[in-house]
Amino acid sequence: MQDFLKSPSLSYQFPQKHSTHTMITVYIIIGIIVGAAGGILVATKLMSDKLLAKSQQALNNAEAALKDAEEKGEVIKKEKILQAKEKFLQMKSEHDKHVNEKNAAIREQENKLKQRENTLNQKVSDLQKKSDELKQASEKLNNQIELLNKSRAEVAKKEEEIVEKLEHVANLTAEEAKNQLIEMITEEAKSEAATAVMDIVEEAKITANEQAKKIVVQSIQRTATEVAVENTVSVFNLENEEVKGRIIGREGRNIRALESLTGVEVIIDDSPDAIILSGFDPVRREIARLSLHKLVTDGRIHPARIEEVVAKTRKQIEQEIAEVGKRTCIDLGINNMNHELMRMVGRMKYRSSYGQNLLQHSREVANLAATMASELGLNPKLAKRAGLLHDIGKVPETEPEMPHAIFGMKLAEKYKEHPDVCNAIGSHHDETEMTSLIAPIIQVCDAISGARPGARREVVEAYINRLKKLEDMAMTYPGVVKTYAIQAGRELRVIVGAEKVNDAEATKLSFDLSRQIQNEMTYPGQIKVTVIRETRAVNYAK
Q: Are strands 480-486 and 491-496 parallel, antiparallel or unpaired?
């Protein structure tokens, strides 16, 4: 600074009178400049230190961030490595599992093949063994045949020698002697046999007729008979015609509600003071009849009331059915019967067959069967049980596609009835073979109950026409000689000529005829078609 002030460029010659004042001013200026320079230096140093500190901090932060990033990268790297290892282990495990499954399947197939091979080897061995045995048996049989032929030859030779000796002694040939002896024995046997046969037949006829008539008459005499007429139509009588309009309801709502709830058809026609209830199910008709009676008596007739009354009536009828079945079993002395079978017995009250009440018919058959079984020394309780249940297949809630006898037998077997009872039920129309002594009794009693005058109301003319149509239909087939409709039209027997129809054609004829009957005729139950082809070879030994 002193050198700078002493430099020629800054030298200035002040006047003498102002030299002191000037010097002070110069020094002040210099001081100011020096102070400013020092301040600048100090500020610069401070700013540089501050910048240096900030840069150092930024550097530290950068280093920390870098370190943190490196640590995070290391962690991510380790995680990715672990994930890759896990994925590798998983894929390896799946591959091993797949390989093991394939190996197991291959081993299983190998085992099966080995087993089949062993089986085939065993079969081959067995066949070889059987072949050897057959060969040995054949050789043995051939040896025996040879011995037999030799024996026959020796016997024939000895017979010839004996016959020659006898012919020489009797002065007759063997043929002549044999014919005389046969003729004499035949005449004596014919005479004695004819006499014995006639005696036996006459005695059997007298005894059998007497015993059969006695048993049947006693059974009928000891059995009460009542006739009940059941139809498919029930008539509900009204006090006056005004009630019809209330029953019909507005726009027929009451009638539609009653028909939908009961399942019967309500017919309101010009018949005075009467409404007709039509339906095949007598239980439903009875529910509708009782419901109408309650509605008319109460006077409140509308759809809601009809629904309530029908529900109560249906419950009442079900209780009555159960009570009727129970009371019937008690009256007949039948114990330990299944409740479902007892309920079916109660349903018989509302079922008819050819106009004959089914419950009354079953009671008749039960009493008749018990009486006959007692007379014949059989079990009357089983016979009465079988008689009551023989038509149980007619009262199912759902119609089965099989004969009522077979269905009844299956029901009895289902509810653990005695095997003799089941057989009697199934065979009372010859659908199955009779294996017990009670079965023919039930069949006979069923025929007796249905055959008495007034029991059934089938139009005779229609019945005869149906049988005649069956026989005429069978006669239209080639090779048919005679036809017989038996078992009240339940069976058709067709006799064919043996020289015109072979066995295969007979089978086809039976099938075709059954199909034609099924398609063209209306009949109750089922019809059994039996084609008989017989060949007889008759000859006489003299």
A: antiparallel
Positions of CATH 3.30.1370.10 in the chain: 233-451
- Domain at 462-533, CATH class: alpha beta
Q: What DSSP character marks residue 401? A: S
What would you measure as the largest C-alpha separation in the chain, in angstroms? 224
Extract the tokens encoding 84.
């890759």
What is the C-alpha to C-alpha distance for residues 30 and 4, in angstroms, rounded to an integer?
11
Q: Where does 263-403 have alpha helices with state H?
A: 282-298, 303-332, 339-347, 358-375, 380-389
Dihedral (CA of 189, 191, 192, 194) sign: positive
What is the average per-residue pLDDT within 367-390?
86
Let me know: does 499 contact 538? Beta carbons within 8 Å.
no
| Residue ranges matching CATH 3.30.70.1350 in the chain | 462-533
Q: Residue 291 above 70 pLDDT?
A: yes
Closest CA to 389 of 433, 431, 338, 352: 338
Return d(Cα 530, Cα 484) in angstroms, integer. 10
Alpha-carbon distance 525 to 294, whole Å?
37
Task: Tell me what pLDDT residue 106 has.
Answer: 92
Computed over its alpha carbons, how large is the radius of gyration of the chain? 59
Looking at residue 397, the DSSP 8-state letter turns out to be S
Amino acid (1-letter code) at residue 45 = K
CA-to-CA separations, 66 to 55, 56, 81, 106, in angstroms, rounded: 16, 15, 22, 58
Of 11-25, 283-297, 345-359, 526-540, give the range with the top mean pLDDT. 526-540
Question: Does this model's pTM top 0.85?
Answer: no
**CB atoms inside a 10 Å sphere around CB 428:** 28
CATH fold, domain 233-451, is: Ribosomal Protein S8; Chain: A, domain 1 (3.30.1370)
Neighbours of 266 (CB within 10 A): 21
Phi, psi angle pair for 352, to nearest 5°: -130, 155
| Angle, in degrees to the nearest 10, between helices 404-414 and 419-427 | 170
Q: Which of 299, 308, 245 is nearest to 275 (CA)?
A: 245
Question: How far apart are the C-alpha atoms of 85 and 90, rounded to whole Å?
Answer: 9
**Minimum mean pLDDT among 368-372, 456-460, 500-504: which range?**
456-460
